[in-house]
Amino acid sequence: MSFSGKYQLESQENVESFMKAIGLPDELIQKGKDIKSISEIEEDGDNFKVTVTTGSKVLVNTFKIGEEAELETLTGEKAKAVVQRDGNKLTVSLKGILSVTELVDGNTIVNTMTLGSIVYKRTSIRM
């Protein structure tokens, strides 16, 4: 299955505790927690471009599976990391956060980010 497409955030769990743990200010957490972000994924072989738009904030990451890339985090920091693919799962460890994005069927993506004991889960549906 291809990840390519546009997905809208359907639901999320533990957003506030996770965002506090990574250092986002309460004001930004409250402002952004109810916005239905749009994720656009372009997949061309092992090359990916992921664009996440949350209100006026746009985060763009481009990477090739298995090769080091500079990725932007949720806080706007840049860090080098390697994204791995295992079937319908993309996995990356970035600044202590383990992120797993799984295409669970043709229309649903589940992204789980784990920092210590906090698990932030986002479910998005293909538009």
Automatic annotation (TrEMBL):
Keywords: Cytoplasm, Lipid-binding, Transport. It holds the Pfam family Lipocalin_7. One of its GO terms (cellular component) is cytoplasm. The keyword Cytoplasm applies. GO terms for molecular function: lipid binding. The keyword Transport applies. It is found in: Cytoplasm. InterPro entries: Calycin, Fatty_acid-bd, ILBP. Belongs to the calycin superfamily. Fatty-acid binding protein (FABP) family. This is Fatty acid-binding protein, liver-type.
